[in-house]
Amino acid sequence: MIKGSNVTLAALSENVGSVIVSLGWGSPTGEGDADVSVLLLDASGKVRSDSDFYFYNNPVAADGSVQLLGKTPTADGNEDRISFDLTAVAPDVDRIVVAASRYDGARFGELEEVRLSLADGAGEELVHFAVDDADAVSAIIFGELYRREGGWKFRAVGQGYGTGLAGLATDFGVDIEDDAAAVEAQDNAASDGPADVTLPAAAGEPYPQETLTAVPTPRRPDDGPKKPSARPRTAKKKITLPKATRKTLAENESWKEARLFPVSALKSDRDREMRATSVLLSVMAQVPEFGRRLIAAFGAPAGRMETFTEVTLPHGDTPRRPDGVIRVERAGKLWTALVETKTNGNALKADQVQAYMDIAARRGYEAVVTLSNDVALEGSPLIDVKIDGRRKHKVALWHLSWAEVAHQAQMLIRHEGVGNPAHAWLLQELLHYLQHENSGCHGFQNMGPAWVPVRNGIDDETLCQGDPRALEVVESWERLIRQVSLGLGGELGQKVLPVQRTRRGADPGARRSRLADQLCLEGRLQAELRIEGTPGVLAISADLRTGRLRTSMEIPVPEQGYPLSWAKRLVRRLAEAPADLHIETLVEGETGGPRGTLERLRPEPADMLPKDSSTRTTGFRLSLLKGMGSGRGNAESGFIRSVDDAVHRFYSTVVVHVHRAAPRRAVSKEPAVATR
Prior knowledge:
The protein is an alpha+beta fold and 676 residues long. It has 13 helices and 23 strands. The chain has helices at residues 164-171, 178-187, 269-286, 288-295, 350-363, 402-416, 421-435, 451-459, 468-492, 508-522, 563-573, 598-601, 639-658, and strands spanning 6-8, 18-26, 35-41, 53-54, 66-74, 77-85, 95-101, 112-119, 125-130, 139-148, 151-161, 304-309, 324-330, 333-341, 367-372, 396-401, 496-498, 524-531, 537-543, 548-556, 582-587, 595-597, 617-627. Helix 3 packs across helix 4 and helix 3 packs antiparallel against helix 7 (421-435).
């Protein structure tokens, strides 16, 4: 689509009762990011109340019509996805505006390939819109969904805002507190307000044009008296579990607390699969906010959910029994997904999944959902299935890893909160079950059969470029990094995402092939994680030749001040960091400056500075080294466990001390959910 064009959704797909809108961008440095927001507007172009404003602190509508799903790593950056159940949108909502904003003075012009895509309930992309003129603006209205003649249409807007999230929300009638708006305005004072919208001529364009009111309608001084400064909260009161552990009443450690979902009786893989499926599906049905969060990305509507296990369905001469079935009822319509589960590292079977896809197509079901310890990669499906193009009904195939399920449970009960104490307790019991060593739901835990041969080949220099085993190791490494991101993000309640330094359009398979060749030449696996709120990117390097893991982060120096002051301040902040922490001074125009361990530099911070006073210091690189496990599995001596431990140790002992407490994105003095 081009800027200003519009299209009727029903003309593109029959499955548009629910849609997924994805906002994406890339960053040359790997550090660029933005936050999405959604506003529901009535016929006057204003929100009905402040609760119609959905953003990072109010991510889900009570009726399920809007749900911010968070970020998903892509080959060239990240995509932030939003689920819309258009059948659940209130009748007096005329338009839905989709926007995104940057913070801390950042501008969209610093990002690459800013775009929007819209997919139907089966996951098929219907429209794509590239915002080509994003420059010195801190917020953008990407597009809007609006009602016309009983249906829904989408319009590509691409309108820039210089006044940030607070200015955008205020112009749509959201009551932003004065101090929060001032912070945003000061951060984003480079522009006076929204840019004009010019609709292209209709002739020769791929989508029909129509006259619409410009978006948004700015609030002027003569619009009437301002609302009182005391504003309602933008989210309901949420319940989170207390961080401090209650004192136990047990007489000694041998007394084990009674659990809703016991794991002691699990003896076989079949037992684990049946128990895990039943436990998960039952909690999804009883805790609506959790169930919706897991299946909203699959095109499921917001409605009454029921879940079933061990359902027998006819399939030729041999009936099939999928592990589970999820059904959602909304306005008399049913959305159905078959569920196939694997635990304990067992692989999904292609013939089973293919049979369920065929059954779903014949019976008019919408999706097949697979759950396993494995992590799906973009452009590299876990299971290849054949789709019969002659069938009109399309079935979507989706995958969840157990690590993703645990991550979503952690985010809800420990950080964002749920609205019911019983729901919080149920999620806590589910999380305890998933994390128990006997449940078999530990996530990705095996580097694969190629791991040992590749390590041996690197060690004796016999591994050649083009060896398919190196590509298998690179794919396993990418799965591991994504799982580490989920685990750390769930614990912190912050966005933790792998950084992909490739341009949009790059083939994920070609990128992994290049990394495999690099592994053969250099013997190293490398990755980067961006953790929300931290001053730099956390880099991870596994040197298979030396058997050592390096975790590091580059800390930029302030724009003002003196190098010696920077060095002293850094040493003070790292007072409780490990003594073996390596500190390297980064200097302009040179490969590296002075370096040493924290133990040696503590008495004399001046040793961190270049001898030549004219050399400009640009930052400091902090690094920790540790030996890595040799086994391919997740045992104490395994590689996977050593990487996970290294990342958590570096964050908890180093990053927390240099964490930048920036005054970002203040919208409400009293956020109703736990801050991230």
